[in-house]
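It would be a great kindness if you could assist me with a short task in structural biology. The matter concerns a single protein, recorded as an amino acid sequence and a row of backbone structure tokens. Could you please explain, in whatever detail you think fit, how the structure tokens follow from the sequence? Thank you for your consideration; the sequence and its tokens are set out here:
___
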Amino acid sequence: MLPRLAVLAGLLLAAAAPQSALAQAPKPGTPAPAQKPTAKPGTPAPQAPAEPTITPSHLALAREVMLSSGIGRSFDTIMPAMADQIRKNAVTRPDLAKDLDEVLKSLEPEMALQKNRLIEVASRIYAKRLSEAELNEVVVFFRSPAGQRYVETQPQVLDDMVGAMQDWTQEVSEYIMVRTRAEMGKRGHSLQ
């Protein structure tokens, strides 16, 4: 479960990063890109699309959608899992266990702030992608009995989907290999 949540959190944070910053950062060892010719003098430079204005009410609806949808609940397991990973890494030093537990306990308020930061990032992502009117309709759905049932069953549905996708990937992989061998055999090639 943690890898899926960590991926989700990573995707949310990556989506919130300014795209221009990501595009401009060269990879280590990559030569600098060739410079594009500059525009003719007097030609205005192209304008980047403006970020949509997000009102406080728009952001509040986005936050409610994000929390009502169950995504916020997913964040609840990330910080404790990180703390558990730190404990596991410190197993080589059992003498640190008591102090480590105390330190991790004292960091819980800071971890809660980090979780809130992720909630704000996710809320802004929703607000950028959905209008205030659309978010309002989604809120109405999540407040309905069907919406609440949807959220309630979401963890089990996602777990079932992950298992089904793993089975499907295996089956399709085997099928494609059998078909590829058969087609290559028709061309006089033998694949092992």
Observations:
- The chain has a mean pLDDT of 80.
- Residues 150 and 192 are 46 Å apart (CA to CA).
- The two ends are 36 Å apart (CA to CA).
- Residues 154-192 form one domain.
